[in-house]
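SAMPLE LOG
Freezer: B-3
Tube label: C17
Construct: single chain, 304 aa
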Amino acid sequence: MIVFFYNKGWIMQKKIPMSDPQRGPSGVGLSRRFVLRRLLGLFCVSMAVVALSGQRVGAQVGQQGLEGVDRVLAMPNGAYSGRLSHAPAPEGRAYRLPADSSLAVRQDARLRIYLFRAWKRERDLRFEFRDLRQQPVATLLYLDGGRQIWLRDFRRNELHRKDGALRFEPLLATAFSFEDLRPERYEARYDGAAPRRLPDNRIELRAQAFPDSDYGNLIFISRTDPDWQPGRVDFHDREGILFKTLLYGYGGRIAVAGAGIAAAGYPTLLEMMDLRHEAVSRLEWAEADTTRPINAGLFDPDTL
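STRUCTURE (predicted):
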């Protein structure tokens, strides 16, 4: 049993290696009460942080902080697997899916679960998403740190390049946009504003607004030097209103090739809360293999 700590609450999530024949999302309990309680708690915490005066620190610290955030979020080159799930506020009941993912499970229209494989090579990243019946759903390709984003939609048999405002569309109708999962270098987006040191000794770092979208400034709540580990990112619109928050979960033990079950240094769980639509999406890593070389052909758009 793996426990992730997020600000004011505990989340308990069972991790089953993807190689286990009994794998599958056996305990997905994204109930209406869970979603609304998390959103309300998040809003209260965020407003409390905004209300804190904090101590201004030098702009150089802000630059160093975003460099540190990049280092923490960067995964090693390798092959990965995991699960993406999304739940709008359901109507008062928790969802339970069979542990045996080989069963033909009919997904509830309000709860979407995808299994994925991913490959990372330097600044390129590829995701392949499948449904619980192991049918291909989409392939997502990030090239050159996300300067190019390609999507192969198997259900519509379409290939798209996501440019401009299209980068901020929802990925598979979840709270994540295509832009949110790119291997971004946040250091390059530092807006020059002096960060604030918060009373709990964390620091508030700002990244500049994104063009072609309603994404305003991103505000990172992070630990300070030397680890700069981000705990949360708040997404504000162009009017400065909070509309999404991304929480990072650390300390998760995943199946690592050659090392058995081990702790990862990067976040193993990303939880995006969409305050506008009262929905929560989770991206969870289950396996990692950083020992074998990754074929460069995986990152050729022609392979899509």
